[in-house]
């Protein structure tokens, strides 16, 4: 395994997906080497890493799922619908996504570490997700 990192936003290919999926090691549930159009279901995974590609096929977002309740569809599809329903720019830019499904037994800290690693390999910054209290003056 190499420590390849692509600078900036890069296209997602079958080979890149396979390399990123292999990073999950024993926690990988199965390979899903096909992009899924935004709005379509990803399957029935609970824990996963997902990579969003824009209309040019370039990676533009990396996220994780680890729901605390059972879902009627894949967790990645559910999470993505939350994103696009809250953001016009994401609805306009995001075209498809790739899923790295993880075993349900994957510890949450492993899911988080894998998300950071995949994002770093793609050169996608993770935003600071801690909500800061609104300061009123």
How much β-strand is present in the residues?
15-25%
Order of helices and strands: HEEEHHEH
Query: What structural class do you assign from the helix and strand content?
Result: alpha+beta
Strand order of the largest sheet: 1-4-2-3
User: What gap, in angstroms, lies between the N and C termini?
Assistant: 52 Å
Number of helices: 4
Mass-distribution shape: globular
Word description of this protein:
- A hairpin with a 4-residue loop joins strand 2 and strand 3 (59-65).
- Strands 1-4-2-3 form a 4-stranded antiparallel sheet, sandwiched between helices.
- The chain has 137 residues and is an alpha+beta fold.
- Mean pLDDT is 81; it is low at 1-7 and 128-132.
- It is built from 4 helices and 4 strands.
- The protein has helices at residues 14-22, 75-86, 88-93, 108-122; strands spanning 36-37, 47-54, 59-65, 94-102.
- Helix content is 31%, strand content 19%.
């Amino acid at each position: 395994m190499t420590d390849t990192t692509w600078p900036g936003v890069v296209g997602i290919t079958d080979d890149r997906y396979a390399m990123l999926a292999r990073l999950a090691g024993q926690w990988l549930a199965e390979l899903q080497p096909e992009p899924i159009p935004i709005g379509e279901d990803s399957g029935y995974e609970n824990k996963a890493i997902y990579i969003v590609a824009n209309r040019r096929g370039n990676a533009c977002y990396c996220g994780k799922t680890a729901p605390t309740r059972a879902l009627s569809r894949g967790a990645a599809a559910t999470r993505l619908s939350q994103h696009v329903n809250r953001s016009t720019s994401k609805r306009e830019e995001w075209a498809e996504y790739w899923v790295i499904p993880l075993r349900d037994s994957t510890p949450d800290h492993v899911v988080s570490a894998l998300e950071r690693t995949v994002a770093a390999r793609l050169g996608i910054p993770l935003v600071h997700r801690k909500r800061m209290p609104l300061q009123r003056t």
